[in-house]
Amino acid sequence: SMQRYGLLNKYQLNVDRDNFDYLYLSLEFSELAGKKFEKKRNRLKKFLHTFPDHQIIDYQRPHLEEVLSFTQEGAVSCLNLPEVYCHNIISKGLQDDLFQGFFVRVGEAIAGILFYSELNPQTIVVHTELIDPQYDGVSALLNQYLGQKVASRYKYINREQDMGLPGLRQSKLSYRPYRLLKKYDILI
After folding, report:
1. pTM
2. Are 151 and 142 in contact (CB under 8 A)?
3. 40 CB contacts (<8 Å, ≥6 apart)?
4. pLDDT at 27 exceeding the cut of 90
């Protein structure tokens, strides 16, 4: 349609790989079945064996301070972004009831959190997944639980972009996305 209106000569379309969204099948996350998820299952088993006393807790308003405290801790892996940035986004989303989610507690400590919202009737978007790296395998637990929680209602999980961060890209690719949703920049 850009060609029809003579716009191709005025604009340059560039692929923006750092902002591709990662789309997954909810059912695959819920099961982590097959050879392609073997490493995820192994890490999950390691977590379950090492931390048998863990609890998965669905987020409710009384948990707000505990979750926000976790987002400010130095041990939290926050995508190489300043912790205050993550804290502010999570704080705003939770205070305005924009997110649903859950967290994993081991003893008195939070090991990981995951918050999401509905994008459309078939898709949820994961806005925040933060983990304490000392709990190896907690990310696999968070993602499997998410799949189990939403698979009956939603077909897709969108885990958003990797922002060009190599570790985050590797992590998102390791869950074998169903599809990458391409994004473009238009330059005048």
Report:
1. 0.86
2. no
3. 32, 140, 143, 144, 174, 175
4. yes
- How many angstroms separate the most distant Cα atoms in the chain? 64
Beta strands in 11-108 (DSSP E): 12-15, 21-25, 55-58, 100-106
Which single residue is written with the structure tokens 């897709």? 156
Parallel/antiparallel/unpaired status of strands 184-187 and 12-15: antiparallel
**Tally of CB atoms within 10 A around 166:** 9
Residue identified by tokens 């029809």 is: 4
CA–CA dist 20, 69 (Å, integer): 31
Which tokens go with 100? 């649903």
What single letter denotes the amino acid at residue 77?
A: S
- Could you report the per-residue pLDDT of 136-157, keeping only the tens digit for each? 999 999 999 999 999 999 999 9
For residue 74, pLDDT over 80 is answered with no
Helix axes 64-72, 83-95, angle to 10 degrees: 170
Greater model confidence, 96 or 154: 154
Distance CA 149, CA 44 (A): 17
pLDDT at 20 over 90: yes
For the stretch 149-161, what's the b/e string if a residue is b when 16 or more beta carbons lie within 10 angstroms of its beta carbon? bbbeebbbbbbbb
State how far the Cα of 31 lies from the Cα of 48, in Å rounded to an integer: 16
Identity of the residue numbered 154: Y
- Tokens encoding 114: 């995951």
